[in-house]
Design brief:
The complex is a heterodimer of chains A (about 525) and B (about 300). With about 525 residues, chain A is α+β, with helices and mostly antiparallel strands. Helices cover about 30% and strands about 20% of the residues of chain A. In chain A, the strands form six sheets. In chain A, strands 10-11-12-1-13-21-14 form a seven-stranded mixed sheet. A six-stranded mixed sheet of chain A has the order 16-20-15-19-17-18. A four-stranded antiparallel sheet of chain A has the order 5-6-8-7. In chain A, helix 3 crosses helix 4, helix 9 runs antiparallel to helix 11 and helix 10 runs antiparallel to helix 12. The radius of gyration of chain A is 25 Å and the shape is globular. Chain B has two domains: about 70 residues, no CATH class; about 220 residues, Orthogonal Bundle (MetI-like fold). The chains are: A alpha+beta (about 525), B mainly alpha (about 300). Chains A and B meet through helix 1, helix 7 and helix 13 of A and helix 2, helix 3, helix 5, helix 7 and helix 8 of B.
């Protein structure tokens, strides 16, 4: 026994000494960031997951970009011209651009990249439909010819919402969109370090020393993308309590999306700052199944619209009024296309009365309404529970089916009856960037079978969206957006439960000059002390 | 050899059961891959590419075929070989499992023996209070308390993360102290109680009384005569503990942000990454089977009356 105790004491002493050993010297200019999700798919065209979009922004570059006012600026493109009939676009690439494998960026790479992108992206698909040719002129020049003018062409190539038209080497761009690209070779300001990638745990990027930034100052996604950090680590921390403790302790530098409960604590912590970096935020969506009763009847959909008081939702799921906004417009409030809704329902009591009347007019007789509740998403689950309560108050027979998000994404493509594995309502959200444009607004597309789950079918909405593609000036676009709002008030393709922004917390004693962007977090430009 | 062969049907049954269970459970990896903006058509396309539209028996035969060649397959989400993914996660899991078991055995066995020897004394009562606390306090609560005191307030240890052994034994150990302590609470409690109960039973035996009457020294009596006979249930509990630790201590891994097999399993389940789940459960089943075999062999060593 004595021998054992001696050994134990010795072991603990050694352990103590070892524990006191200095930590490995920190690398120079490293940003350690906890992101909102783990990067598991490297292909920004195959998936529309936000984290893969962020990854794309690190690794790839785009032909054009939006500046802070969403004005299109050339990025990889040096010069471009548009023919008088507005049907031919000629692009010339900047000189000196190189892929991360050292090969020069050529026009053929860009042609192949656009062709891969326009298979998946909904705006890209419109260009593909109109394109008569997309051809290489020489190593740095290529030409796009359209059968008719498409006023949104440059915006489509510049947009920063999924799917982004990222440029990649031809050999990768020629991989079919159903197959996943396994490499991440771009020409962007950071290089992906595959050897250090631990899916679900850590993603590492290092500065691309060969990157040639534009000379203009950074402005959102446009201008010079200058990587000032040598290395960026994205760390996955599923526990928010641990993440905020690690930030306070200086073990990490950045939490992209801290949970609302921890914001007051992080605001008070020494050396940390809480700020809205991604300004467009998100718009909440209550999606109704247009193929199944009762929401195959427009009156029932109007009933749901009447029932949803955005303030009730946002107070419940966001809490701090500084981060949310009640917005009756189907397009993001604060964006250039914000519209006015002609609908007004009064207080909660009259909302419920209106909803009751409309459901009655829809012929609703108490059939169960299946609402899918994603229990692993605090935000969407909160919104689902508020919806269920409001529906009960309106006398509706709501059947809440609780499951994880993985089960919901498997169930929602089911067009069948709710009693046979289908559904009536699910809750989701879209980025404010998507919500700010008729072509990218997830819930607005009403092209029947091709539309997002819920499958609204409305030829008027589709005609207006088509008109939008031809509009070239902002007043023209605004006019169409308002017409879409009026139509949406009438036919209710989806119901918005408001919009909110997600604050970011970071070590302001270490990081500065963080770019404020509409819909993603950029790690270039950040100065690391 | 006979026992080894008998384990094969167990592993095959586990493989079949897991495969069917995953396919029958709600979820669709194609929909997860496609992302929020995808349409039904996009999802169908990805499902076809993954071969998830094929009949179940075809999918099973394909998987079993690659498995027999020693290939665990690729992750549906990241496209990385599963063997590599497991390789990235096994070191943290083995480290935390080994350290926790080492610390637990080192503390719990003397505690349990002392409590049994001094039954109904303060030593016994203190041990039992500790055991009850160890069982009752949730690991995450202990973890957060340890982080607050030893990482944030005192700054002795990091809040989170795992430093590979290759970076040096110092950083490796420093990062593992808090998770090991948090996890050891439960295992010390479990082992101390088991040891005490087993020792109490043995200490009441006639041959112990005879040894005492013959004047055998306390240390010899406890360790040579009593503990060697009381060790069989303790070894069983240690074995179960090791298998539980290897198959994933998700909460501890989550609280201390340790990228181990437990988190890999949970992430794979949430994203419906079937090949990873199948591979991990097969491996865990294999570990159970091997450890059970080892425990059986230790029984024979500890108690020559046991035969197979």
């Amino acid at each position: 026994m004595k021998h054992l105790i001696t050994k134990l004491a010795l072991a603990l002493t050694v352990a103590g000494l070892l524990a006191a050993a200095p930590a490995q010297a920190a690398e120079k200019k490293v940003i350690r960031s906890v992101m909102h999700a783990a990067l598991t798919n490297l292909d920004p065209i195959q998936t529309t997951a936000d984290i893969t979009l962020y990854h794309g922004m690190m690794v790839y570059d785009t032909l054009f970009s939006w500046d802070k006012d969403l004005v299109v600026k050339p990025q990889m493109v040096d010069t471009y011209s548009i023919s008088k009939d507005k049907r031919t676009y000629t692009f010339k690439l900047r000189s000196g651009l190189k892929w991360h494998d050292g090969q020069p960026v050529k026009a053929e790479d860009c042609v192949a990249s656009i062709k891969r992108w326009w298979v998946r992206d909904n705006v890209g698909q419109r260009i593909a439909e109109l394109a008569t040719s997309l051809t290489v002129v020489d190593d740095s020049t290529f030409k796009l010819m359209l059968s008719e003018p498409f006023g949104y062409t440059l915006d489509a190539l510049a947009k920063t919402g999924s799917n982004v038209a990222f440029m990649m080497p031809k050999r990768l761009a020629e991989i079919g969109t159903q197959d996943q690209i396994r490499e991440a070779i771009g020409s962007g300001p950071f290089k992906f370090v595959r050897e250090e990638w631990v899916p679900g745990s850590k993603t590492v990027y290092v500065k691309n020393e060969a990157y040639v930034p534009r000379q203009e100052p950074s402005s959102a996604a446009a201008g010079g993308k200058i990587a000032r950090a040598d290395r960026v680590e994205w760390i996955v921390m599923p526990d928010q309590q641990t993440a905020q403790a690690a930030l306070i302790n200086g073990e990490i530098d950045y939490i992209e999306a801290p949970q609302a409960d921890f914001i007051p604590m992080l605001r008070q912590a020494k050396g940390t700052t809480v700020k809205t970096i991604v300004t467009y935020g998100n718009q909440g969506i209550i999606r109704l199944n247009h193929l199944q009763p009762p929401f195959d009847n427009v009156k029932a959909r109007q009933g749901m619209l009447a029932l949803v008081n955005q303030e009730t939702y946002l107070r419940a799921i966001i809490g701090d009024a500084a981060f949310y906004k009640v917005c009756p417009s189907i397009f993001l409030c604060g964006s250039s296309l914000e519209t006015k809704s002609g609908l007004s329902y009064g207080d909660d009591k009259s909302r419920i009365q209106t909803a009751k009347r409309l459901f009655q007019e829809a012929g609703y007789k108490g059939e169960p309404i299946v609402l899918l509740n994603p229990t692993d998403s605090a935000l969407s689950s909160g919104a689902a529970l508020v919806t269920a309560q409001l529906m009960r108050e309106a006398g509706l027979n709501v059947d809440v089916k609780s499951m994880d998000w993985g089960a919901i994404v498997a169930r929602r493509p089911n067009k069948g009856k709710p009693s046979e594995g289908g559904w009536n309502i699910f809750i989701s959200n879209q980025s404010g960037m998507s919500a700010s444009n008729p072509l990218t607004n997830l819930g607005l597309a009403a092209n029947c079978e091709k539309a997002w789950f819920g499958w609204p079918c409305d030829s008027k909405i589709e005609a207006l969206r088509k008109d939008f593609t031809k509009a070239e000036t902002l007043p023209e676009r605004r006019k169409i957006a308002q017409a879409l709002q009026d139509r949406a008030d009438e036919t209710v393709p989806y119901v918005s439960f408001g919009q909110w922004t997600q604050p970011t917390a970071y070590r302001s004693d270490k990081l500065s000059d963080i770019l404020v962007l509409p819909n993603f977090t950029a790690f270039w430009n950040i100065v690391v002390k | 050899m006979r026992r080894l062969l008998a384990t094969l049907p167990v592993v095959v049954l586990v493989a079949l059961f897991v495969f069917l269970l995953l396919r029958l459970a709600p979820g669709d990896p194609a929909a997860v891959i496609a992302g929020e903006h995808a349409t039904s058509i996009d999802i169908e396309r990805i499902r076809a590419m993954l071969g998830l539209d094929r009949p179940l028996h075809e999918q099973f035969l394909l998987w079993a075929g690659t498995l027999l060649k020693g290939d665990l397959g690729n992750s549906i989400m990241s496209n990385m070989p599963i063997a590599k993914l497991i390789g990235q996660r096994i070191e943290p899991t083995l480290s935390i499992a080994a350290l926790t078991m080492f610390v637990s055995v080192l503390i719990a066995l003397p505690m349990g023996i002392a409590a049994a020897w001094g039954t109904r004394t303060w030593v016994d009562r203190t041990t039992m209070v500790f055991a009850i606390l160890g069982f009752s306090l949730p690991v995450f609560l202990v973890g957060y308390a340890l982080i607050y005191v030893f990482a944030i307030k005192l700054g002795w240890f990091p809040v989170q993360g795992y430093r590979p052994l290759a970076q040096g034994i110092g950083p490796w150990l420093r990062g593992l102290v808090l998770p090991t302590v948090a996890l050891s609470f439960t295992y010390v409690a479990l082992l101390a109680r088991t040891t005490r109960a087993s020792m109490l039973e043995v200490l009441a035996e006639d041959y112990i009384r005879t040894a005492q009457a013959k004047g055998v020294h306390t240390r010899g009596l406890l360790f040579k005569h009593a503990f060697s006979n009381a060790a069989v249930p303790v070894v069983t509990v240690v074995g179960i503990g090791v298998t539980l630790l290897i198959s994933g201590v998700v909460i501890t891994e989550t609280v201390f942000n340790i990228p181990g097999l437990g988190r890999l399993t949970v992430d794979a389940i949430l994203s419906r990454d079937y090949p990873i789940i199948q591979a991990l459960i097969l491996i865990f089943a294999g570990v159970y089977v091997v450890l059970n075999l080892v425990i059986d062999l230790i029984y024979v060593f500890l108690d020559p009356r046991i035969e197979y």
